[in-house]
Amino acid sequence: MSQKIIPIEPVTGDDEIEVSLYAARQKIYPRSVAGVFSAWRWVTVWITQCVFYGLPWLQWNDRQAVLFDLEARRFYIFGIVLHPQDFIYLTGLLVISALALFLFTAIAGRLWCGYACPQTVYTEIFLWIEKKIEGDRSARMRLDQSTLSVHKLAKKWTKHALWLTVALWTGFTFVGYFTPIRELGALSLALALGPWQTFWIFFYGFATYGNAGFMREQVCKYMCPYARFQSAMFDKDTLIVTYDEERGEPRGPRSKKADPAAMGLGACVDCSLCVQVCPTGIDIRNGLQYECIGCGACIDVCNDVMDKVGYPRGLVKYATQNGLANHWNKTEMLRRAMRPRVLIYSGILFAITTAVFVSLFLRTPLKVDVIRDRGALARMVEQGRIENVFRLQLMNVTEAPQRYVVTVRGIDGIRIASEHEFDVLPAEVRSAVVRVQIPPGVASGSYPIHFDIQSIDDEDVKVQEPAAFLVPR
């Protein structure tokens, strides 16, 4: 069949047309919902926020239990003291987090996004405040569409004041992980905060205020990279929030007493409540979409509707694509969760987690770096002895003062001709200068030697560090 081509005439004169390539954002007003998944979401909100806000206030050995002291270059995590040399543990933690995310996603989709992601958590908190001040979905929509009035201004200003309070307290708590929070509180009350502390409190606070109060689903849909690469971790046996199209279509309204089979209708009553409760504003009935964060709000509201009309629950549910296609029950779908991909993720995750924690548990509470003094590589001293000067960095990673004895070996007659016992305070790094001498008559060249550093207070704490002794020609 031939198609008629209609030429487009150029616009001339004042008939200019402006074409926008971007759709204007339509504000989403999520409807309140109650149910199993909503309850679980609030459980994670309480757990994560009690940990986040409460952890900096815990004390351990007369100090903050969790403190990342960047200025002193020491990180305290309860009884563990880490230094920059322990960066490998941070790497291990990041690898464990990534593998855990891959594992959970392969099993049940975007669990992190729907329940524990800070964006989700703070959006829930800000929405709760908004609902308490402005009312539920319909009331908020009417308020936004109404003309400006004292009543409207009072509600809006109250809401934003509470939002800012939560946001700034969040920023204050965040900085409290890097500056002792009790000290930070005293500085805040005295209006004596440093420049970087002030910057990060307000930066993190306003980021929370903007993301949770205004951008909301825009962060999940356009800014978060996870929404883009999640498909690489999904397969047809991944549990996802799914609409049972075979059971629900064709959809349409009907009375509670009507027989849907006689009317040629499926179980979906086309109430659109699943769209109204969705925090990203999608219609789950259109299939899997990258905007879906897997929060389960549509499952809760759809089950409530099914109860009211007397139909079985599960029109919208957590299911797998293979499960729906093959009409599997829950047991059969869960059995497929233990597939090769999941087993590989689990094995690697278990191995790395075990290795990191075993290494952390067995690490020696003393770290030593031996550095040759570049200003005097080798020199001849009294009685023709040859001397090299070394600088030892002694790192006491315990929270008790330690006294260390330094000895040296590797060449006949080698000895330390300077102070060889050093006191190191708790979690302190001390630099010690050690002069090492050998008797005359040793041929020129480089000779391997070893420093032995032993704790007087704990015989099990002993470190050996290699070095090289230079004999000049």
How many domain units? 2
Strand content: 15-25%
Radius of gyration: 33 Å
- The unreliable regions are none
Mean pLDDT: 89
Largest sheet geometry? 5 strands, antiparallel
Estimate the helix proportion, in percent: 40-55%
| Structural class determined from secondary elements | alpha+beta
Q: How many alpha or pi helices? A: 17
By DSSP, the count of extended strands is 16
User: What general form does the structure show?
Assistant: elongated
The first-to-last residue Cα distance is 97 Å
Explain what the structure shows:
- Strands 8, 9, 10, 12 and 14 form a 5-stranded antiparallel sheet that branches.
- The model has no long low-confidence stretch (mean pLDDT 89).
- It is elongated and about 110 Å long.
- It is built from 17 helices and 16 strands.
- The longest helix has 26 residues, at 150-175.
- By secondary structure, it is of the alpha+beta class.
- The protein has 2 domains: 23-363, no CATH class; 366-471, Immunoglobulin-like.
- A hairpin with a 2-residue loop joins strand 4 and strand 5.
Structure, briefly:
It contains 17 helices and 16 strands.
Tags for this entry?
473 residues; alpha+beta; Immunoglobulin-like; five-stranded antiparallel beta sheet; four-stranded antiparallel beta sheet; 16 strands; 19% strand; elongated
Which helices and strands appear, and what pairs or packs with what?
Elements: H1 36-54, E1 59-60, E2 63-64, E3 66-69, E4 74-77, E5 80-82, H2 87-108, H3 111-116, H4 118-134, H5 137-145, H6 150-175, H7 181-189, H8 195-215, H9 217-223, H10 226-229, E6 240-243, H11 245-248, H12 260-263, H13 273-276, H14 297-309, E7 316-319, H15 321-326, H16 330-335, H17 340-362, E8 366-372, E9 379-380, E10 386-396, E11 402-409, E12 415-416, E13 421-424, E14 429-438, E15 445-455, E16 462-471
Antiparallel strand pairs: 1-2, 3-4, 4-5, 6-7, 8-10, 9-10, 10-14, 11-13, 11-15, 12-14, 15-16
Helix pairs in contact: 1-4, 2-17, 4-6, 4-8, 6-8
